[in-house]
């Protein structure tokens, strides 16, 4: 794909001034938010799933959270987890500016692997992971427990700056993402897809259990 075509696809769904302001906050505090193509894909997934309950690992300043909330049901609740409470405060500003009621965004300050085990089994329609790349495999295990049958797990940075596709790249984060891809693609209970949007979005549907 030529760069111009990729850029056209990435910008196909435009961001508004609220998302632009959230991106400006992210830059100020050193957070790297999802790309607009990933955001549009997340909103699409949340909408197709008619999502009422979503978990997000990595709140940032609310860019991904707002995309998700805009795709969810009007009564849907986003549970978003981040180790940085200050980032979550900025995310709340983003949600407020977007007119999202406070009861629709539940922020939990803490590490993903400390918080996820406390959440309810089989309750969630979508789990979005954008936390520590080295913990992606552990996030997947938690997501399989948290998702209802038919729910979707998604991972940002699945191409990791073009490093995952290059077998000579063996740093810890790249290896972790590469191994996650193999795990997801071979999992008997998942239907996977790797989308070349942003820095790569790996998504997979949790299959319904067979009858009988």
From TrEMBL:
UniProt KW Cell membrane keyword: no
Family annotation (CDD domains): AdoMet_MTases
GO biological process: methylation
PROSITE patterns noted in UniProt: SAM_OMT_I
Key words of the record: Methyltransferase, S-adenosyl-L-methionine, Transferase
Listed Pfam families: Methyltransf_3
Entry GO MF terms: O-methyltransferase activity; S-adenosylmethionine-dependent methyltransferase activity
SUPFAM superfamilies named in the record: S-adenosyl-L-methionine-dependent methyltransferases (SSF53335)
InterPro entries reported for this sequence: Cation-dep_OMT, SAM-dependent_MTases_sf, SAM_O-MeTrfase
Superkingdom assignment: Bacteria
Protein's recorded name: O-methyltransferase
Organism field: Nocardioides seonyuensis
